[in-house]
Amino acid sequence: MTHTRNNFKSGRGFTLLELVMVMFVIALVAAIAAPNLKGFISGRRAPDLASQIMAMAHYARSQAISEGRTYQLNVDTRVGEVSVTAEDDAGAQQPLQTSIGNALVIPQGPGGMRMECDLPQGDNTQQIARFYPTGRCDPGTIKLTDDRGVSYSITCESPSDSYHIVEDK
């Protein structure tokens, strides 16, 4: 008579109690780490938004040069929006029909950011930076400060410079 050998040996598997204990340890580590991750994510928001604003400014400048028409970076600190518009044939600024033309919304208020702007005054509540076909632009600064007090400035010192990010210490 041939005996069939059982491949399952005792001690090779995990008991339900062991699995529950491992899940408990994982949940405990996640609960301890979660508040730190929240700070990390919110700490990355200001530099990410500053990079997006700088990208919008670089796009406006390069398009103004390549298309031979004036582009504008529009900043509304009251509602926390930044957008790019382009001059049409009649000389009026029109929203872009591309994804970069969508307004970038800066979260403000508790847990959000504070946005300050030192650009020429535009229409209504907006301040603007114009980008000309010659490659020149309106100098100025847009400053984002997060809820921890860390500031990032998107700045241009002279009409012949381009906008860049400076982390304020």
Describe this structure in words.
This protein has 169 residues and is an alpha+beta fold. 31% of the residues lie in helices and 27% in strands. It has one helix and nine strands. The chain has one helix spanning 16-67, and strands at residues 71-76, 81-87, 93-95, 104-105, 114-118, 127-131, 140-145, 151-156, 164-168. The strands form two sheets. Strands 1, 2, 3, 4 and 6 form a five-stranded antiparallel beta sheet that branches. The model has no long low-confidence stretch (mean pLDDT 85).
Question: What key attributes describe this structure?
Answer:
169 residues, alpha+beta, five-stranded antiparallel beta sheet, four-stranded antiparallel beta sheet, 1 helix, 9 strands, 31% helix
